[in-house]
Amino acid sequence: MTTREPIIQExxxxxxxxxxxxxxxxxxxxxxxxxxxxxxxxxxxxxYQVEHGTFLGDDRFVWGPEGLDEVEAELLxxxxxxxxxxxxxxxxxxxxxARWLAAQGARPMALDxxxxxxxxxxxxxxxxxxxxxxxxxxxxxxxSFDLACSAYGALPFVADPRLVLREVRxxxxxxxxxxxxVTHPIRWAFPDEPGPEGLSVAAxxxxxxxxxxxxxxxxxVYVEHHRTLGDRVRDIVASGFRLxxxxxxxxxxxxxxxxxxxxxxxxxxIPGTAVFVCERD
Length: 281
What we know:
By secondary structure, the chain is of the alpha/beta class. Helix content is 26%, strand content 22%. The protein has a seven-stranded mixed sheet with strand order 4-3-2-5-6-10-9, sandwiched between helices. Helix 1 (30-56) runs parallel beside helix 4. The protein is globular. The termini are far apart.
């Protein structure tokens, strides 16, 4: 199969016919970023699952476009030690990672900002809870989980990542681990192109101005935030975590696919994903 199963219903709030957002770099605060990205993922969840669903699978735990799989990486720990653990997946999308965790005997909970993404989780199925909420205000009691994970979820899209990190720390039990992956910060200096045009530096790595797509009235419809590698480390430490590992997956020989600006050409030369492994004392 090259696509997912048929979508269960028509997508909500479609873009106006002929709408083309304007791409720019400008400030976008916490509220604007959350509102824009909730709407973007609700509108684009169907297309995302059709385009990437086969690569992600129904119950694989993949950390990024390189294809680093938790089966081999064991960043949350050996699979046999996940049994019985309460695990929160943040930015779960269709909950592929949570589904894999459930198969290991864990007790996952899948959270996403987008209602439409969670509809895809329902379509695929699973016996674990789905929660539609903002990662900056987790609706859980202190110390509810043993582990937390996020594969390209939430962190790239929030204006203040420390809000999310502090919330994750709050809901983790002492000794809990949080592992999250994001676009590797060095990628912000290069064009988001998979071919040779994406191999030359085009912007300052130190320019932290958010990337924003906006409508004709200047309202953001998509926002992504840049943090340098040092920023990420400082955010983690300031939020009460210890950084115990930083994984930069290399592009494997078996992976011939392109995903946005990720490709075998670029993956052989520069990192595309950064995975941060954090623990709370």
